[in-house]
Amino acid sequence: MTTPFARGMARATELTRAGKLDEATALIQSLLQGQTAAEAAPADDDVIEGDFVTIENAGGAQPPPADKATKSKSAKGLREKLRGMASGNFTGPQLRPVVEPELPHGAQFLSLTHRGAQGSRDYRLYIPAKQAAEPMPLVVMLHGCTQSPEDFAIGTGMNALAEEFGCLIAYPAQTQAANAQKCWNWFRPEDQRRDRGEPALIAGIVRDILRDQPADRTRVYVAGLSAGGAAAAILGAAYPDIFAAVGVHSGLPVGSANDMPSAFAAMRGGSTGVASSSPVPTIVFHGLADSTVHPGNGAAVVAQVARRELRQQQTTGRAGSGRSYRRTDHRDAEGRNIVEHWEIEGAGHAWAGGHTGGSFTDPSGPDASREMLRFFLQHRKAGGAG
Hints:
Blueprint: H1 4-17, H2 21-32, H3 37-40, H4 68-85, E1 108-116, E2 119-127, E3 136-142, H5 149-156, H6 158-165, E4 168-172, H7 197-212, E5 215-225, H8 227-238, E6 245-249, H9 260-269, E7 282-287, H10 296-305, E8 311-318, E9 324-331, E10 337-344, E11 351-352, E12 361-362, H11 368-376
């Protein structure tokens, strides 16, 4: 049965596609505030009937009433998001020019292409100058909307850590043909399943690297930001036989959306998603001031993968003179950290501890790249992908 909220969001989608952004903005705001059908009705002859439910914050408490200036700013930002969503963009900024990261002597940043049954995708592969004698861990990094592999490499600083720890780093590239603003399509059912769509393409990239490079199939990891974070969570759920651990930064849980209206609702209000049948170790970062993807989504990612028998331990800290954070560890009976949840005070929609040369970064920390790599290297699979 279609709910009044779903009907309302479907109508908002129609208004957006028709270019009626003011009407779509007013309708969505009223839906998210839990107004009645009469209050939420668009300013035309199509009336949506029924009462709309309130979407509660995933954290529990409702936000305080906003003043007129805040509401005006929120409506303007919502109109910009809707304008972008009409072309597949979930964040709004324009695409950035590609800038090549600097490489140390002897390092390589290869431009490669995977081709398979689901199509093809380009990717960059960083091979450190200092290579270990044994097969190296592989970290797959999924950029956010409007970003590129090169931008993401610069912003996260992961290539420098690859030199320090002896890792291969792969950066798959989303195309504008697949999404106008180069977002990974985490909200489409066909891109949330094993051996289908984008998950199959990224798994194919991993298999290519395992075939062609000195990569350790027992130590393969995936991480991403925003849409890339949501896609990383999907890959962990779809391919627990490939990925030994997952990193989700400012992302969403698996199954949180199946179309554009439900994606928008999940981003704004949080989502529970669906439980994972074969959870893999996961580290989650989310800024508590993130106005693009509600921080309750980070808690929902944790809830999907943290088994009941794990013991929780919470600590607080501050990244140098930067942001304070709360870290919750979920440990098994042997004391191994299976899930980590980092909640960062005052941080918005940006990679924590990132470099200003890249987009969507927050240099005030904590250092998400280093912490993710630390977490990843604690975990390996008994076998690995064939």
